[in-house]
C-alpha cells in the first residue's frame, strides 16, 4: 500500500509541475493510440449531488519488430 501511495503521489507531483497527464512509462518511436470516454455514475440523478461525472483516458502502445 505504501509503494502504491508513493507512486500515485509521484504522478500527481509530476502533473502539478508540468500541467500534463502522461504515463511515465510511454516509450518513444512506438505507435500509440488513445481512447477517451465519459464516466457517469448515478446518471438518473436530477441534481449534481450524489452523482459523479468524470473522464477516463486509456493509452495503448503497439510495439513492432523494429521497436519492441
Q: Distance between the terminal alpha carbons, to the nearest Å?
A: 31 Å
Approximately how much helix is present in the residues? 25-40%
Average pLDDT confidence is 80
Spans of at least 5 consecutive residues whose pLDDT stays below 50 are none
Q: Strands of the largest sheet, in order across it?
A: 1-2
The number of strands is: 2
Biggest pleated sheet:
2 strands, antiparallel
Order of helices and strands: HEE
Q: Helix count, per DSSP?
A: 1
The computed structural class is alpha+beta
Estimated share of beta-strand residues:
25-35%
Total domains: 1
Structural shape:
extended
Give Rg in angstroms: 17 Å
List the helices and strands and how they pair.
Elements: H1 2-18, E1 31-41, E2 52-62
Antiparallel strand pairs: 1-2
Can you walk me through this structure?
With 68 residues, the chain is of the alpha+beta class. The chain has one domain. It is 25% helix and 32% strand. It has 1 helix and 2 strands; from the N terminus they run αββ. The chain has one helix spanning 2-18; strands spanning 31-41, 52-62. It has a two-stranded antiparallel sheet with strand order 1-2. The longest helix has 17 residues, at 2-18. The radius of gyration is 17 Å and the shape is extended. The mean pLDDT is 80.
Notable features of this structure?
alpha+beta; extended; 1 helix; 68 residues
Short description:
The chain has 68 residues and is an alpha+beta fold. Helices cover 25% and strands 32% of the residues. It has one helix and two strands; from the N terminus they run H-E-E.
